[in-house]
Amino acid sequence: MTSRRQRHRLRWRRSTKTRSPRELPPLKPNPTLFKVARAHSINMAKQEKMDHVLDGKNPADRVKAAGYKYSYVGENVAEGENWPLTNVHKAWMESEHHRENILKDKFTEIGIGIARGESGKTYYTQVFGRPQTKR
Questions:
Q1: What is the pTM of this model?
Q2: Mean pLDDT over residues 71-87, rounded?
Q3: Which CA distances in Å does 32 have to 38, 63, 70, 91?
Q4: How far apart are CA 42 and CA 54, in angstroms?
Q5: Of 38, 58, 83, 94, which is most buried with the most CB atoms under 10 A?
Q6: How far apart are CA 40 and CA 58, in angstroms?
Q7: Coil, strand, or helix at residue 116?
Q8: How many of the other CB atoms lie within 10 Å of CB of 65?
Q9: With 90 as the cut, is the pLDDT of residue 85 above it?
Q10: Rounded-to-integer distance, Cα 15 and Cα 89, Å
């Protein structure tokens, strides 16, 4: 059984590996985005509901509330039962919108969250961001 940290690292590597053939810089792990992604996956698992908006908050609201000052922000979510991470990544890459997030050159940082609900479903979140430039 792999640990949560190992699963997050594998998920990050897959996203970064997908970007490199397209000459896009790797996404840097950001602790705040990881915290936001984890919390959203846990919330989806608790509510047994996959959605970008829960409790009236969208990805930008959650990132801002965590103190991440961004120029750009985006999110991918997924749910599945006993899905290997390769299947989650494949599903995101086969979806135009999700693939765009993974390959968007405006995103420079990433956070990943994975949580399992009581029903056995696993909820996955990728939060992408680009911090504001300091003036």
A1: 0.84
A2: 91
A3: 10, 8, 11, 25
A4: 11
A5: 38
A6: 10
A7: strand
A8: 11
A9: no
A10: 8
- 73/81 Cα distance (integer angstroms): 27
**And the tokens for 55?**
């409790």
SS3 97: helix
Q: Do residues 66 and 127 touch, judged by C-beta distance below 8 A?
A: no
DSSP state of 20: G
The tokens describing 113, both together, are: 């969250």
pLDDT at 77 over 70: yes
Tell me which DSSP letter residue 120 carries.
S
Which residues neighbour 115 within 8 Å (Cβ) at sequence distance 6 or greater?
38, 41, 42, 44, 45, 122, 123
CB-CB neighbours of 36 under 10 Å: 26
CA distances from 42 to 77, 79, 91 (A): 12, 12, 21
